[in-house]
């Protein structure tokens, strides 16, 4: 089976940094995606990692360690609009995505 | 703007009454997916089309069917909805089946079964 784990909830203050961890055990691996999903809206693409290391894109960065089955999404200079659910999704190598249940991030003023 | 559109955004049906959810895309993508997402759970892939080729997930109930009459449209038919089928249904597209192709999601249809 496919197992993707991420924390259920995280709370942080506006302007702070939050790191959302994702660990995975899947039948195959061909890249990991992070999506942002605001309440009642569609998931939107944030990042894709297939090689080990850190990918930086503005305030958001994503890290992957394939040997450890581990990724994190780093959100810097948090803004109120960053309050959302963040979904980790693994491409299993069969062109299908297995999603984690999502981490709900609440940003407080 | 190119996008994925789902109608309706909210659908209420009665137990056992067939219902159809629709999805359209202006991205001209080859692949269309249907996911079921229950509250606080991960999106679960039901099936996908690569062009006209239909691919069903092994654990998708027979109660769920899909049609893709052309590149732009894809439908999800639930033949006899049960209370357990109440969920958000997400349609997504991707250009192709390459691993790096991100999936573009529609806003979802929230289905309520009375």
General description of the model:
- The complex is a heterodimer of chains A (109) and B (114).
- With 109 residues, chain A is mostly beta strands.
- Helix content of chain A is 0%, strand content 57%.
- Chain A has no helices and 11 strands.
- Chain A has strands spanning 3-5, 9-13, 18-25, 32-37, 44-49, 53-57, 60-65, 70-75, 84-91, 97-99, 103-108.
- In chain A, strands 2, 4, 5, 9, 10 and 11 form a 6-stranded mixed beta sheet that branches. Chain A has a 5-stranded antiparallel beta sheet with strand order 1-3-8-7-6, with no helix packed on it.
- In chain A, a hairpin with a 2-residue loop joins β6 (53-57) and β7.
- Chain A is globular.
- The N and C termini of chain A lie far apart (40 Å).
- The mean pLDDT of chain A is 94.
- In chain B, the strands form 2 sheets. In chain B, strands 2, 4, 5, 6, 9, 10 and 11 form a 7-stranded mixed beta sheet that branches. In chain B, strands 1-3-8-7 form a 4-stranded antiparallel beta sheet, with no helix packed on it.
- Chain B has strands at residues 4-7, 10-13, 19-25, 31-37, 44-50, 53-56, 64-67, 73-78, 87-94, 104-105, 109-113.
- The mean pLDDT of chain B is 93.
- With 114 residues, chain B is mostly beta strands.
Q: Give the helix/strand class of chain B.
A: mainly beta
Tally of DSSP helical segments of chain A: 0
Number of DSSP helices of chain B? 0
What average pLDDT do the residues of chain A reach?
94
Distance between the termini of chain B: 36 Å
Number of strands of chain A: 11
What is the string of helix and strand elements of chain A? EEEEEEEEEEE
Briefly note the structural class of the backbone of chain A.
mainly beta
Based on CA atoms alone, the radius of gyration of chain A comes out at: 13 Å
Shape of chain A: globular
**Biggest sheet statistics of chain A:** 6 strands, mixed
Quaternary structure annotation: heterodimer
């Amino acid at each position: 089976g496919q197992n993707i784990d991420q924390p259920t909830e995280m709370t942080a203050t506006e302007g702070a940094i939050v790191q959302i961890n994702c660990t995975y055990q899947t039948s195959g691996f061909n890249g990991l995606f992070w999506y942002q999903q605001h309440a009642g809206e569609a998931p939107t693409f944030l990042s894709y990692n297939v090689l080990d290391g850190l990918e930086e894109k503005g305030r958001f960065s994503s890290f992957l360690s394939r040997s450890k089955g581990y990724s994190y999404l780093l959100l810097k200079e948090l803004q109120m609009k960053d309050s959302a659910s963040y979904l980790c999704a693994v491409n299993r190598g069969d062109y299908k995505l297995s999603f984690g249940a999502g981490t709900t991030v609440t940003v407080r003023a | 703007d190119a996008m994925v559109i789902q109608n309706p955004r909210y659908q209420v049906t009665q137990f056992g009454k067939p219902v159809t959810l629709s999805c359209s895309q202006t991205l001209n993508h080859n692949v269309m997916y249907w996911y079921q997402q229950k509250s606080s759970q991960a999106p679960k892939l039901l099936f996908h089309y690569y062009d006209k080729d239909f691919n069903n997930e092994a654990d998708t109930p027979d109660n769920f069917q899909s049609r893709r009459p052309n590149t732009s449209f894809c439908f999800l038919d639930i033949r006899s909805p049960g209370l357990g089928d109440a969920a958000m249904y997400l349609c997504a597209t991707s250009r192709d089946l390459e691993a790096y192709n991100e999936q573009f999601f529609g806003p979802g249809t929230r289905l309520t079964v009375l």
